[in-house]
Amino acid sequence: MKNETKETQNIEVQLLNINGDVKTYNDVKFIKVISTKYNLIIMKDYLPIIGEVQGEIEIGREKENIKMKKVRGYFMHKHNKFNLFYLD
To answer: I need a labelling partner for 57 at 20 to 30 A (CA). Which of 7, 33, 82, 88 fits?
Structure first.
């Protein structure tokens, strides 16, 4: 069995808004994307994906979930790192 560190067991999330504010979370278990045309749930080791969102994002953390409503932006998930650039 592989000995994984705490860091590799989670997804790293970076949120960047148009004003230049950056928030980073390292304890994320899943990301739920609910857009006008599709619904996604992104988990550890999910395939690389790039997309546009017009809807909601839920970030499932170990102790609390973060819910973002009326999100308009673009996201990318690759190598267990999720980046979201969004408008306020």
So the answer is: 7
Q: In angstroms, rounded to a whole number, what is the distance separating the alpha carbons of residues 66 and 87?
A: 17
In this structure, what DSSP letter does residue 64 have? -
**Burial class (CB within 10 angstroms; exposed 0-12, middle 13-18, buried 19+) of 38:** exposed
**Residue whose token pair is 């590799």:** 8
For the entire predicted model, the pTM comes to 0.87
Residue 34 host element (H or E):
strand 22-35
The pLDDT, as a whole number, for residue 9 is: 82
How far, in Å, CA of 88 to CA of 85, rounded? 10
